[in-house]
Amino acid sequence: MDSTKPIKLEIWKKLKEDETYRAAFFRAKARDEIASQIKMLRAKRHLNQVQFADKCDMKQSAVSRIEQSEYSAWNFNTLLRVAEALGARLRVIFEPVEAVIEQYRRKEEAINHELAGKTTSAFGNIYKIVAGSGSTGVVKPIAVSQHHEKTHV
């Protein structure tokens, strides 16, 4: 018998109700997205950090820093310079909080419709849903191949 219970991450509720949490969450998400986009596009352009640094007129150590999600000391001009060196357009989007909260609510709802032992790709990652006690379950990240195929653990 399947003992799967709904998963109660409720990130969307935290985003809706707690302004401090929301601000920290959005800051961290923006840093993660910027760092990962720079790193992925640099790799797509077949540039190592030294080559990319030369194109940006910066040191390799600076490239290493801007590719870290913990780093946030870049400014708009640095991001423009990075975009130009990568042959990309820099785009800044302001999303209304209520639209973002609704996206997270829908993604969480999708996770809750999955069965225990199956995978889901919500939130841009692959997770394995494991039954838990009470009304919660545990969501564990699982290994993903280079082609981002779902992998069962």
Taken in chain order, the helices and strands follow as HHHHHHEEE
**Largest beta sheet, briefly?**
3 strands, antiparallel
Please tell me the overall pLDDT.
79
> Largest beta sheet: what is the strand line-up?
1-2-3
What's the tally of helices? Answer: 6
Give your account of this protein's structure:
- It is built from 6 helices and 3 strands; from the N terminus they run ααααααβββ.
- Strands 1-2-3 form a 3-stranded antiparallel β-sheet, with no helix packed on it.
- A hairpin with a 7-residue loop joins β2 and β3.
- α1 crosses α2, α1 runs antiparallel to α6 and α3 packs across α4.
- It is elongated.
